[in-house]
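Can't attach files on this board, so I'm pasting raw text. These are the components:
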Amino acid sequence: MTNDLDDTLAQLFFQDEPDTQSNAFTAAVRRRVARRRVLAKATRVVAVAALAAAAVALVVLVPEAIQYPVRELNRWLSSPFGAVACLLGTVGVAWWSRFGDA
Amino acid sequence: MGTLTGAAEAVVVALASNGDAEAFDELVRRKQPSVRGLLRRLSNDRTLAEDLAQQVFVEMWKSLPKLDSPAAFPAWLRKISVNVWLQHFRKKHLLVLDNEAGELVADSSVPSHDSGIDLAAALGLLPVAARLCVVLAYQAGMSHGEIAAETGIPLGTVKSHIARGSARLRELLLRDYGGTS
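---
Top answer:
Structure tokens for the assembled complex are below.
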């Protein structure tokens, strides 16, 4: 779809184009981007530090919490379903190592 | 003068989207006249336009890695410019874009007079949505359909804004520029 524009006005827009080339502007953008970059980095550092602190607090305050996944895995592997899954996994790996790349 | 001064735009865009700081600076240098010019026309406020233009380039820096094709860069940057401007005006609740009747919120900071004014001042006298459509059509060279798609204004309203806006601009400007109908 094309515009039905007024030629005289189009000419005025063209003639009245503001001169907007500026090194100060480029420098201002660079400063803003640098600030954003520092802020993003700081946010990542704070997030990682907060996660680490939470993990340490969990281990110190509720030591049994860290044993929970180990206990659960042990229980699951000891069950008949876990045994069947291990067996199937072993067969799968053996098959793949023999025929997988063929 | 940087090493990328004479490089093709697609190359500079590809480098910038991979995090090359020099390429990003080069893009800012190349694109600032069009972005700042567009935002000055839209905002009718030099300081605000400078601030919004800087925001546009910060958005460009954030989103450039997601740009699929360097060839789409000019239209993509123009879209960011329009979006930054729209977001600013929406935040200030100054914008009602899809009003067919054209009873739109005008920029109250502009004094109302109708003689001896330049293009910037004449644009400032248009309602905001009409100014948006007129500037995108005349300055950015966008078609009515593109303006409708980019701004979310219905096509019929875009046409009506451009027709009325152009007529008003002609009234305000032509005697200064000595033009005829």
